[in-house]
Amino acid sequence: MAKKKKQDPNNRVVAENRKARHNYEIGEVVEAGLQLTGTEVKSLRTGKANIAESYASEENGEIVLINSHIEEYVQGNRFNHNPRRPRKLLLHKREIHKMVNAVQRDGMTIVPLKMYFNDKGIAKLAVAVCRGKKAYDKRQDAKKRDWQRDKARLMRERG
C-alpha cells in the first residue's frame, strides 16, 4: 500500500481568486513576493485572507496590490495592521516593465490568482496579466466545457 504523503503546513494555498478564470483570459502568470508586516503573516498562517475583488496597479514604478483583505490578527493588539491597506509586490524590474507595458498598450489588467506559502514558508502571490472576457466568450467557454464533459462520457461508455 502506498504511503499517504503528509501535506507540508508551509506549502499551502491561503486564498484563491476563482472568479478570475471565469471573468478573464489569463495571460502570463508570475510569482511575486509580498511586502507584509508581522501580524499580516500570522493572520495568513491562520488562513484569513481574501483576494477575490483585488487587483494590482502601477504606482511610482512599483506594482501595488489593492483591495486585498487580510483580517486583523487576534493577538496583535496595538501592533495590528489595516486589513485593506495597499501592499507592495516584490518583482524584478523587467517583470514590472513588461506588466506595465501590457496594461498601458493592450488594455490588460493585473489580477491576483492565488496567495500561498512556498516551500520555504514565504508568502507568495501568483499574479497574471489578463484580458477581460465578454459575455459571448463566457458562453463559448461553457459550451466547450460541456462538450468536453459529454465527449469523455461517450468515450467511457464505448470502452
TrEMBL record:
Query: What family does the database annotate?
Result: Belongs to the SmpB family.
- Write down the species: Cohaesibacter gelatinilyticus
Question: What GO CC terms are in its UniProt record?
Answer: cytosol
Localization in the cell = Cytoplasm
Example GO molecular function term? RNA binding
Q: Which InterPro entries match?
A: SmpB (IPR023620), SsrA-bd_prot (IPR000037), SsrA-bd_prot_CS (IPR020081)
UniProt main location, coarse? cytoplasm
Give me any GO biological process, just one: trans-translation
Q: Which NCBIfam families match?
A: PRK05422.1, smpB
Pfam families in the record, alphabetically? SmpB
Alphabetized, the UniProt keywords read: Cytoplasm, RNA-binding
What the protein does comes down to: Required for rescue of stalled ribosomes mediated by trans-translation. Binds to transfer-messenger RNA (tmRNA), required for stable association of tmRNA with ribosomes. tmRNA and SmpB together mimic tRNA shape, replacing the anticodon stem-loop with SmpB. tmRNA is encoded by the ssrA gene; the 2 termini fold to resemble tRNA(Ala) and it encodes a 'tag peptide', a short internal open reading frame. During trans-translation Ala-aminoacylated tmRNA acts like a tRNA, entering the A-site of stalled ribosomes, displacing the stalled mRNA.
- Region of interest: Disordered: 139-159
Q: Has UniProt tagged this entry with the keyword Cytoplasm?
A: yes
Know the name of this protein? Answer: SsrA-binding protein
Return the SUPFAM superfamilies for the record.
Answer: Small protein B (SmpB)
